[in-house]
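protien #1 (seq + structre)
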Amino acid sequence: RELKLLNLAQGDAAARVLLVLVEHGLMLREACASLREPVLSRLPLVDVVRLVAKLGETRPLDENLRTAIESRIKPAVASLALAKVPPSDLMLLANASAKSGLVEEHALEAVALAASLSVSAWPAADLLRLPPLA
């Protein structure tokens, strides 16, 4: 309810608000609940990745993560855009899979595909740290 105005915000502004809340551990349940329409489709993909990664560590069982992953990260059409997300942000998402079964089950394969599409941009050490796919 407190974040209802995010429904009217532009994507970058909504992302900044959500990232500040999540990074400071504030209103995490509400931030997770905001990862749905009409806000979700307006958020830049890199910010969706950051939010899902951070929330995956603090709210690993929150079903709102599934919605964000399935609609913005997991679809095959998102692969090319996901490959343009900085490797450090994709690593955050891959690392969140250690704490969140939702992230592991629904996002890890997409991270691996994005890494394979942009392998030349990845530091070798980061490639080696990617969790293995089941």
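ok now protien #2
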Amino acid sequence: PGNRHERLKVLQKMWAHAQFCMSGDHTLEAAGHAVGEVTEVEADDYFVFLLSDANLRRYGIEPEELGDLLVADKRVNAFAIFIAGGSEAGRLAKGLPFGRGYVCADTARLPGAFKEMFSSVSVQKTS
């Protein structure tokens, strides 16, 4: 999106789709699909941002499983953002490869989390 209005449209679409999701968890499938698909079009950088409510334990998903998918392709900068508070979100973020998991208990802090993720990639590229 090239401007604030276009970004808002993207967020509104994401919100609308999320309202009608079926119950169950498809986090691993979504992560694998996104990491695999994002590189199909040539680009300077590849990013995947996986948003989750951190309710993965209920479905028997361990952080290591998700972590393996996030780092499956070295060209892809993939991150998991847990929109939740409490110990489960922290446990998941700590169980992921370093710098790949973020906990955001307050959605007002999402822009700062994204800034931190983009900055971490910039630092890695210059190192």
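The radius of gyration is 15 Å.
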